[in-house]
Specification:
Strand content: under 5%
Structural class: mainly alpha
Number of strands: 0
Number of helices: 4
Distance between the termini: 41 Å
Length: 76
Amino acid sequence: MVDQIAIGLCGVTAVYLSQDARAERRRYACLFGLAGQPFWLYATWKAQQWGIFGLSFLYAFSWARGFFAHWVRRVP
């Protein structure tokens, strides 16, 4: 139950922020996206949904790209 709530809150927040017109808010989308990934991995592992489990790693990689672009190698 907690994993489903976290997936919903993190996922909706990440998508909402990724569509914001202000770049300073868009950069936070990857943080919420990454925060939700452990819950995705746990929930899909527990339910033995191996396809979605594998996709979760691709989503995590994609959110990590945003993290490095907006927070690690930030260009002013």
